[in-house]
């Protein structure tokens, strides 16, 4: 068994990070120049780490499968990024952000990691503004904030509905600056297909040049994975088409434990599925919940148009069930509540798998404020709606346009129809406080690791975590490892470990091409997605999970025997890329079901139907399940469970309530 | 699989690799749903090709929600198709008529060589950014974010320029294959912010030099780029870039 010490520094919670930073071993500037670091992924975590480590003087190689690092999926994050700045003077603090995040995660995250995240959150905003990221501002020229779920303060910074894009372009420009200076060597359209481990340490990767199909060997003193989450295991998700688990999964198979694989975030506000042809789901930012009200008709199977249903016949079920937080409850709670209403027969739209997100009330309210600004006294409703629409347009224009494009309906006229969809994965590679996996020298950053969000992530915290890891955590913590690697000379690429790893990758790719079966890769991916969504999605139970495991095992067998991958190895062949990714998703899917099955409790996004309160809320079992499940890969797709006990020394663990 | 009733003829550019000669190939499509996106229609076609034992069509795509900038199809003579303000992935089949013939080509520009079928190499854009599309601030150098108030209209204008997704539609539609809308958007974003001032003139010279070195054409003020830009990036940015470029040549004391 690998070393699973979380390496949390001693001392008071509030002093752990400061003390560690000041006592962490350093690598002197001259030595940094001879140390090579491989970074896989160029999203918020990867790009921020690559640029920062290069600024510090390390030799960096960065890889992404997209045609440009700017296209990593962080680009699609809409709503915002949290930071404990307390610019709104509403009582925010590092402690409160820490507390909200631990509670939001349903007490399944590490206190020390989350506190560090809250501590560095303010620096992230400073850094991004200095880079020229155009965050939203007030007329006084200072930064604006908006509300997000699971909190009662306004701490979310944003750039219209394109916050992820603007933050990523900031990190991307910092990365390109280092590329231009020759300090980062960038490999676009390259996919990592294995980690090379020599004498127990990560020493490099095997990557495939996706244009020529050639396999390449790359050495590094350390390997960092900022490769994102695995939501696409469900086939339909809000992730980009290319988002995949392959890099993390290959690392897992080389000894990195996988943490909490079953913790998946189902986002409550997505555009509902319209048909079998659907290839992905589109999110409508959580920020909309701040200005919208969610409801369904009080009458079952109500056929009337939304606008024809009078106020008293609407059930604002979130406000009814959770008066304190209302529409701003955390995502897991909001998703389950929507599912509950739809399952009970109150859903709307053709599929009946949707609820309304209505902006009328706030549009009118904004209009009234605008009217006052324009010296219009006693404005009529129509004037208010007209003026209010302009405000809504400025705040969410791109989201409303996106909705209209996809559904063909105008959300300024009719309420949006929304339904939960897979969005984010809290689980990921297990890492210690220093972000190192159980393989020495192999690190995981951002969504690729499991560390900060427990069983449910709060909105606007993913961008915060990705950039925290890349800009402010790894640049310090990697020193602890690299300071002991100064004597390590670059390992020649003909070392047997490199040769073997490449041969094994080649073997797998050649196998896919040689099967010449009858079904496309997508066919298998869709089937996997269906099993996962039905049996390991918003609600799970032991019976369903047990049958899912058997079904996935059978699917895996069938996939390896009957998949059809056209084309050749040494050419640009997207089907071959997909085959590798789906093969890994199938193995991961089985592990997710195993993890969900062993966790006999409900917490956050993991809702086991057998474990709920009388009111239908998640019922945790802190006595037996206050641990991180860390799975070790055994040969032939077998897994062994290890546990990292969570200790809550600063927060009193309690039944989560948003009532 | 699909449930609609649209019948279409596609004429799609097929090219084995960057050395091979390409040509348009006809594909008949039936039972297409108007609710499908254009790329989902291509998914259906590719599934059919795979089942027939033929090679599927390669095209770039990723987020499928109009923000990553990967998708890049030249549809009936227009980048991203007939609708304004959207990318190919946001185009839905309800924008076409039953019985239509649709011609689909890759971006065409010397600086964007075809890799295969509809996928082109746009790394020239990255090199333009690497030449100066940044503010030189190492991690840890920043002051408190609110120590630098920026008037809202200025921040908003910078944001509008920053909304560019780097898809390359501007280059594809331009008769000169000019990258001036793309380049000027980044220059203009940073030139309008106080943080961007120290490197303002250095930046414009380096980025324009790189843009020229990549083999993009010049701007003759046709305005097709602005009309076809899925994010509505304004031609004003080119004016700002030109003004800064001349200022840099005549006024700036710094030589690049």
From TrEMBL, chain A:
Q: Where is the Fumarate reductase/succinate dehydrogenase flavoprotein-like C-terminal domain?
A: 525-658
What is its EC class? oxidoreductase
Gene3D superfamilies attached to this UniProt entry: FAD/NAD(P)-binding domain, Fumarate reductase/succinate dehydrogenase flavoprotein-like, C-terminal domain, Succinate dehydrogenase/fumarate reductase flavoprotein, catalytic domain
UniProt cofactor(s): FAD
Q: Name one GO biological process term.
A: anaerobic respiration
Give yes or no: UniProt keyword Glycoprotein: no
List, for all copies, the residue spans of the domain called FAD-dependent oxidoreductase 2 FAD-binding. Answer: 37-463
Q: Where in the cell is it found?
A: Cell membrane
Q: Name one Pfam family in it.
A: Succ_DH_flav_C
User: What GO molecular function terms would the record report?
Assistant: electron transfer activity; flavin adenine dinucleotide binding; succinate dehydrogenase (quinone) activity
Q: Which reaction does it catalyse?
A: a quinone + succinate = fumarate + a quinol
Family the entry assigns: Belongs to the FAD-dependent oxidoreductase 2 family. FRD/SDH subfamily.
Q: What is this protein called?
A: succinate dehydrogenase
From TrEMBL, chain B:
Q: Which domain of life is it from?
A: Bacteria
Q: Which chain positions lie within coiled-coil regions?
A: none
The biological processes this protein is annotated with in GO are: aerobic respiration; respiratory electron transport chain
Q: Which residue ranges does the record assign to the 4Fe-4S ferredoxin-type domain? A: 155-185
Its required cofactor(s), as named, are: [2Fe-2S] cluster; [3Fe-4S] cluster
What's an example of a GO molecular-function annotation for this chain?
Answer: electron transfer activity
Xref: SUPFAM superfamilies: 2Fe-2S ferredoxin-like (SSF54292), alpha-helical ferredoxin (SSF46548)
Q: Which PANTHER family match?
A: SUCCINATE DEHYDROGENASE, SUCCINATE DEHYDROGENASE IRON-SULFUR PROTEIN
Give the UniProt family note. Answer: Belongs to the succinate dehydrogenase/fumarate reductase iron-sulfur protein family.
Q: What is this protein called?
A: Fumarate reductase
């Amino acid at each position: 068994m690998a070393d699973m010490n979380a390496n949390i520094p001693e001392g008071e919670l509030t002093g752990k990070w400061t003390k560690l930073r000041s006592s962490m071993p350093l690598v002197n500037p001259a030595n940094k120049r001879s140390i090579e670091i491989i970074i896989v992924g160029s999203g918020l975590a990867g790009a921020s780490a690559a640029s920062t480590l290069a600024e510090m003087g390390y030799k960096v190689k960065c890889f992404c499968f997209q045609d440009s690092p700017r296209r990593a999926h962080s680009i699609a994050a809409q709503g915002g990024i949290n930071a404990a700045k307390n610019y709104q003077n509403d009582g925010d603090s590092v402690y409160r952000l820490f507390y909200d995040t631990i509670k939001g995660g349903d007490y399944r995250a590490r206190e020390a990691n989350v506190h560090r995240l809250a501590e560095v959150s303010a620096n992230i905003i400073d850094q991004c503004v200095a880079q020229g990221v155009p965050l939203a501002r007030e007329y006084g020229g200072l930064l604006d904030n908006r509300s997000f779920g699971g909190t009662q303060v306004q701490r979310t910074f944003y750039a219209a509905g394109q916050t992820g894009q603007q933050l990523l372009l900031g990190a991307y420009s910092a990365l390109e600056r280092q590329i231009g200076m020759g300090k980062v060597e960038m490999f676009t359209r390259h996919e990592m297909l294995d980690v090379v481990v020599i004498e127990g340490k990560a020493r490099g990767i095997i990557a495939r040049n996706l244009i020529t199909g050639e396999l390449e060997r790359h050495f590094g003193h350390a390997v960092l994975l900022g490769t994102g989450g695995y939501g696409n295991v469900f086939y339909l998700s809000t992730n980009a088409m290319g988002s995949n688990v392959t890099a993390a999964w290959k690392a897992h198979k080389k000894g990195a434990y996988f943490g909490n694989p079953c913790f998946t975030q189902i986002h409550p506000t997505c555009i509902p599925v319209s048909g079998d042809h659907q290839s992905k789901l589109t999110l409508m930012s959580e920020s909309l919940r701040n200005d919208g009200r969610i409801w369904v008709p009080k009458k079952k199977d109500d056929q009337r148009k939304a606008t024809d249903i009078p106020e008293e016949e609407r059930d604002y079920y979130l406000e009814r069930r959770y008066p304190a937080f209302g529409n701003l409850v955390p995502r897991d709670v909001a998703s389950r509540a929507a599912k509950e209403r739809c399952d009970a027969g109150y859903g709307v739209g053709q599929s009946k798998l949707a609820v309304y997100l209505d902006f009328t009330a706030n549009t009118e309210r904004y209009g009234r404020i605008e009217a006052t600004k324009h010296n219009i006294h006693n404005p009529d409703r129509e004037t208010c709606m007209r003026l209010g629409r302009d405000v809504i347009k400025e705040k969410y224009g791109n989201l409303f346009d996106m909705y209209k494009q996809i559904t063909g309906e105008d959300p300024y006229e009719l309420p949006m129809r929304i339904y939960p969809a897979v969005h984010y994965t809290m689980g990921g590679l297990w890492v210690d406080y220093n972000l190192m996996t159980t393989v020495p020298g192999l690190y995981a950053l951002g969504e690729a690791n499991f560390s900060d969000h427990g069983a449910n992530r709060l909105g606007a915290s993913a961008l915060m975590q990705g950039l925290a890891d890349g800009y402010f955590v790894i640049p310090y913590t990697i020193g602890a490892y690299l300071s002991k690697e100064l004597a390590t000379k670059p390992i020649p690429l003909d070392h047997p470990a490199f040769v073997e790893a490449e041969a094994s990758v080649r073997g797998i790719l050649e196998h896919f091409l040689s099967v010449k079966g009858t079904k496309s890769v997508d066919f298998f991916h869709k089937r996997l997605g269906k099993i996962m969504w039905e049996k390991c999605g918003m609600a799970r139970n032991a019976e369903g999970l047990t049958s899912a495991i058997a079904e996935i095992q059978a699917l895996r067998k069938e996939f390896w025997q009957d998949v059809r991958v056209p084309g050749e190895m040494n050419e640009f062949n997207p089907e071959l890329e997909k085959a590798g990714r789906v093969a890994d998703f199938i193995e991961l899917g089985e592990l997710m079901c195993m993890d969900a099955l062993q966790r006999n409790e409900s917490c956050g996004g993991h809702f086991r139907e057998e474990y709920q309160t009388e009111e239908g809320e998640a019922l945790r079992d802190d006595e037996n399940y206050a641990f991180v499940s860390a799975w070790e890969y055994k040969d032939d797709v077998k897994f062994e469970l290890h546990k990292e006990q969570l200790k809550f020394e600063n927060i009193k663990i309690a039944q989560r309530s948003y009532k | 699989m699909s449930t609609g009733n649209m019948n279409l003829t596609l004429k799609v550019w097929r090219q084995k690799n960057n050395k091979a000669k390409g040509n348009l190939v006809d594909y008949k499509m039936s039972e297409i749903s108007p609710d499908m996106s254009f790329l989902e229609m291509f998914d259906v076609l590719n599934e059919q090709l795979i089942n027939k034992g033929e090679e599927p069509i390669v095209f770039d795509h990723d987020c499928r929600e109009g923000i990553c900038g990967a998708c890049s199809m030249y549809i009936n003579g227009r980048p991203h198709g007939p609708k304004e303000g959207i990318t190919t992935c946001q185009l839905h089949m309800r924008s076409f008529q039953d019985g239509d013939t649709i011609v689909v080509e890759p971006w065409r520009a010397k600086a964007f060589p075809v890799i295969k079928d509809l996928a082109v190499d746009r790394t020239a854009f990255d090199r333009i950014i690497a030449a100066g599309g940044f503010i030189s601030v190492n991690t840890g150098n920043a002051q408190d974010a609110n120590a630098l108030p920026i008037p809202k209209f200025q921040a908003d204008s910078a944001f509008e320029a920053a909304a560019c997704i780097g898809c390359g539609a501007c280059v594809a539609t331009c008769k000169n294959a000019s990258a001036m809308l793309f380049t000027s958007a980044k220059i203009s974003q940073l030139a309008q912010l106080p943080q961007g001032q120290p490197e303002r003139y250095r930046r414009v010279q380096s980025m324009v030099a790189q843009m020229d070195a990549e083999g993009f054409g010049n701007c003759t003020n046709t305005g097709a780029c602005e009309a076809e830009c899925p994010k509505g990036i304004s031609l004003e940015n080119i004016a700002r870039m030109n003004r800064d470029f001349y200022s840099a040549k005549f006024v700036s004391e710094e030589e690049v």
